[in-house]
Amino acid sequence: MEKYLTIYTETRKKIKAFSYFGWLMGWDQETEAPEGSVEYRTKQYQVLAEEMYKIQSDPAYIEAIEYLYAHKESLEDPDFRVEIKNAFKDLRMVKKVPKDELISYRVLTSQASHIWAKAKEADDFQMFAPTLEKIVEFNRKLVKYLETDELKGYDVLLDMYEEGFGVKEYDLFFDTLKKELVPFVLEVTKGNKPKFNRRLKTAIFPKEQQRKFSEYLMEVFSYDLKHGLLKESAHPFTSGVSSTDTRITTKFHEDNLASSIFSTIHEMGHAIYELQNDPKYDDTFLHGGTSLGIHESQSRMYENMLGRSMAFWKLHYPKLVELFPKQLKGISVEEFYLYINQVERSLIRIEADELTYSLHVMVRYELEKQMINGKLKVKDLPNKWKSLMSQYVGKRPKTDKEGVLQDIHWSGGAIGYFPTYALGSAYAAQMYEAMNKEINIEEAISKNNIKAINLWLKEHVHTFASSKSPKEILQICTKQDFNPAYYVNYLKNKFKQ
Amino acid sequence: MEKYLTIYTETRKKIKAFSYFGWLMGWDQETEAPEGSVEYRTKQYQVLAEEMYKIQSDPAYIEAIEYLYAHKESLEDPDFRVEIKNAFKDLRMVKKVPKDELISYRVLTSQASHIWAKAKEADDFQMFAPTLEKIVEFNRKLVKYLETDELKGYDVLLDMYEEGFGVKEYDLFFDTLKKELVPFVLEVTKGNKPKFNRRLKTAIFPKEQQRKFSEYLMEVFSYDLKHGLLKESAHPFTSGVSSTDTRITTKFHEDNLASSIFSTIHEMGHAIYELQNDPKYDDTFLHGGTSLGIHESQSRMYENMLGRSMAFWKLHYPKLVELFPKQLKGISVEEFYLYINQVERSLIRIEADELTYSLHVMVRYELEKQMINGKLKVKDLPNKWKSLMSQYVGKRPKTDKEGVLQDIHWSGGAIGYFPTYALGSAYAAQMYEAMNKEINIEEAISKNNIKAINLWLKEHVHTFASSKSPKEILQICTKQDFNPAYYVNYLKNKFKQ
Question: B461 and B492 in one domain?
Answer without folding.
Answer: yes
